[in-house]
Hints:
single chain; disordered N terminus; alpha+beta; globular; Alpha-D-Glucose-1,6-Bisphosphate, Chain A, domain 4; 6-stranded antiparallel sheet
Amino acid sequence: xxxxxxGDTLVNPVDTTVKVSRSVSKSVKDVxxxxxxxxxxxxxxxxxxxxxxxxxxxxxxxxxxxxVRSYHPLEQIRFSWHAAEEAPKTIVEIDLIAExxxxxxxxxxxxxxxxFDVAAISHRWERALEHLAAAAE
Length: 137
């Protein structure tokens, strides 16, 4: 668990951001298409997770859940992410950036209370991108 900074309390937490990225050897169109499938969504969200349109909710088997907040085909998807029923809402943004040899997928997870295990969340998104890259091959 991450230590709290001075003045940081459960009542007034200092939020943290986790950013991870990975290059995938597929076009932005192919990566977006994959993310729209059950296999691609589960790679990112976990078993049972599905990404829909703006306003659609999602639930994964591990208890995480949220709502799609913005949906920009071939560019970006943002969704709320709750670790559990009583956990605070955080926001995850996934951006697709065209590269010469494929696509860079960037995940930015913001609003994470400092009392969360930030290293575990970072590891979660790194694994998610590994699974997405493997699904793209």
